[in-house]
């Protein structure tokens, strides 16, 4: 195999190590460089594949010799080494872009500020049950690059963040899904919402008339962008409020999915997942499945049987008739809006963490209506206390998950909910949102 030059991988997490494995397989010299420390398990993988690596530094004279660089999604474009590479005209791509060059798979790509994980897992569940040989990757599970290298499949469903989409050049999903766009990660987009919107829409940038774009027609941001920036792919909107000719809508409490006079009808009350946001996620996943010729009965059965994602409105336990709910994956205000909206009874809300520039005003009416007490779980809770001091009489500050759950237990009465839905990132007190969610579940089980 002809040597393809030097592939430098910046960041040795899941996407970085996966890219290194694929690069090696495809005939690149590979060098992995991480400014932080590399976990032992990833070091072992790199050694097994005989891939050169360094940690706690970036050796510039080596990195700048690269023919191509894969930058992990967590590294901003503004960092010095990336700026030097760009100045030297070295292509800097995302793992999604790099991996897509070495597979002929048909891809369903899913992005959005909220709902993308549930929609990705649900689409994968339906398509797999429908008989497709399909892998799931992106923000979820083993990296796309690693799967292309070691067990490629004819179909993929990919959960894609805006950071992953920022680094694409030619990547094109046959079916693209956009669930919602609300302000998130604005610290990475110069605090400009328009930059973030454009980033999400990169998912359709290489689509043609032969591809499909499934999108939320109730999201004003998406609808406005499409009016101002027409795209080439075939549009299949979904909506809870409007009747739609080609796409999905609600009529008499039924989901109707209609594409070229071919119709699927499914009662919303038979969905395993509750809440309006999950009706939309189901519409999006089912529309994609319909396009890929999955039988109607399979789609219906899967929607009735799919019970959702860990750390997303996950019912943990009922103790003394109080339901404890883990929504640790709600790392922004919009996700928490959906969670509070889904609460059917009085709620004790555990909230807080690292604020990403949150505007809490859109939660006021829901908090007034549903929340009887707020338990803050963060190092700095002043913004939450200022925002909701006039809505809720009882606001308590805590620094550990155990304290938060113990206080919730004392405050809760029969038929209440205790909801962990932080609306913030987790890095002040926890490793990540999974760690936060698991600690919540452990604390509840110990009550």
UniProtKB/TrEMBL annotation:
Pfam families: Mur_ligase_C (PF02875), Mur_ligase_M (PF08245), MurD_N (PF21377)
Cross-referenced InterPro entries: Mur-like_cat_sf, Mur_ligase_C, Mur_ligase_C_dom_sf, Mur_ligase_cen, MurD
Entry's family note: Belongs to the MurCDEF family.
Keywords: ATP-binding, Cell cycle, Cell division, Cell shape, Cell wall biogenesis/degradation, Cytoplasm, Ligase, Nucleotide-binding, Peptidoglycan synthesis
Reaction(s) catalysed by this chain's protein: UDP-N-acetyl-alpha-D-muramoyl-L-alanine + D-glutamate + ATP = UDP-N-acetyl-alpha-D-muramoyl-L-alanyl-D-glutamate + ADP + phosphate + H(+)
Mur ligase central domain sequence ranges: 110-288
Enzyme class: ligase
Functional summary from the UniProt entry: Cell wall formation. Catalyzes the addition of glutamate to the nucleotide precursor UDP-N-acetylmuramoyl-L-alanine (UMA).
Name under which the protein is recorded: UDP-N-acetylmuramoylalanine--D-glutamate ligase
HAMAP family, per database record: MurD
Annotated compartments: Cytoplasm
Primary location recorded for the protein, binned into one broad class: cytoplasm
Pathway membership: Cell wall biogenesis; peptidoglycan biosynthesis
EC number: 6.3.2.9
Any one of the GO CC terms: cytoplasm
Residues making up the signal peptide according to the UniProt record: none
GO BP terms: cell division; cell wall organization; peptidoglycan biosynthetic process; regulation of cell shape
Mur ligase C-terminal domain ranges (all copies): 311-424
Source organism of the structure: Aquimarina algicola
MF-aspect GO terms: ATP binding; UDP-N-acetylmuramoylalanine-D-glutamate ligase activity
Binding site for ATP: 112-118
SUPFAM superfamilies: MurCD N-terminal domain, MurD-like peptide ligases, catalytic domain, MurD-like peptide ligases, peptide-binding domain
Matching Gene3D superfamilies: Mur ligase, C-terminal domain (3.90.190.20), Mur-like, catalytic domain (3.40.1190.10), NAD(P)-binding Rossmann-like Domain (3.40.50.720)
């Amino acid at each position: 195999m002809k040597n393809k030059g030097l592939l430098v991988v910046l960041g040795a997490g899941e996407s970085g190590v996966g890219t290194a494995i694929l690069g090696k397989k495809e005939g690149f010299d590979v060098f992995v460089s991480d400014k932080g420390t590399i976990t032992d398990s990833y070091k072992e993988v790199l050694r097994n594949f005989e891939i050169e690596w360094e940690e706690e530094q970036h050796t510039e004279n080596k990195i700048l010799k690269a023919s191509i660089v894969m930058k992990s999604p967590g590294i901003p474009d503004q960092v010095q080494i990336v700026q030097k590479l760009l100045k030297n005209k070295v292509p800097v791509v995302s793992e999604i872009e790099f991996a897509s060059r070495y597979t002929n798979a048909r891809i369903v790509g899913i992005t959005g500020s909220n709902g993308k994980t549930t929609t990705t897992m649900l689409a994968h569940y339906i398509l797999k049950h429908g008989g497709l040989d399909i892998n799931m990757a992106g923000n979820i599970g083993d990296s796309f690059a690693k799967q292309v290298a070691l067990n490629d499949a004819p179909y993929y469903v990919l959960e894609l963040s805006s950071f992953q989409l920022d680094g694409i050049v030619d990547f094109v999903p046959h079916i693209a899904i956009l669930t919602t766009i609300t302000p998130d990660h604005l610290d990475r987009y110069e605090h400009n919402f328009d930059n973030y919107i454009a980033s999400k829409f990169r998912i359709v940038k290489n689509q043609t008339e032969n591809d499909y774009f499934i999108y939320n027609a109730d999201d004003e941001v998406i609808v406005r962008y499409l009016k101002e920036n027409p795209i080439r792919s075939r549009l299949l909107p979904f909506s809870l409020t409007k009747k739609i000719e080609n796409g999905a809508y609600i009529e008499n409490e039924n989901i109707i999915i209609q594409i070229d006079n071919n119709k699927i009808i499914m009662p919303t009350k038979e969905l395993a997942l509750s809440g309006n946001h999950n009706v939309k996620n189901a519409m999006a996943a089912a529309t994609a499945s319909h396009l890929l010729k999955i039988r109607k009965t399979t789609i219906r059965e899967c929607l009735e049987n799919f019970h959702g994602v860990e750390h997303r409105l996950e019912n943990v336990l009922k103790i003394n008739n109080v339901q404890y709910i883990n929504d640790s994956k709600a790392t922004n205000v919009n996700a928490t809006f959906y969670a509070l909206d889904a609460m059917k009874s009085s709620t004790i809300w555990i909230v807080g963490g690292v604020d990403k520039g949150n505007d809490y005003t859109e939660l006021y009416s829901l908090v007034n209506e549903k929340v009887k007490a707020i338990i803050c779980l963060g190092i700095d809770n002043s913004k939450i206390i200022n925002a909701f001091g006039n809505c809720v009489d009882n606001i308590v500050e805590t620094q550990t998950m155990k304290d938060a759950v113990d206080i919730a237990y004392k405050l809760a009465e029969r038929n209440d909910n205790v909801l962990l839905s932080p609306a913030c990132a987790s890095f002040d007190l926890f490793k990540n949102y999974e760690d936060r969610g698991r600690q919540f579940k452990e604390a509840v089980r110990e009550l």
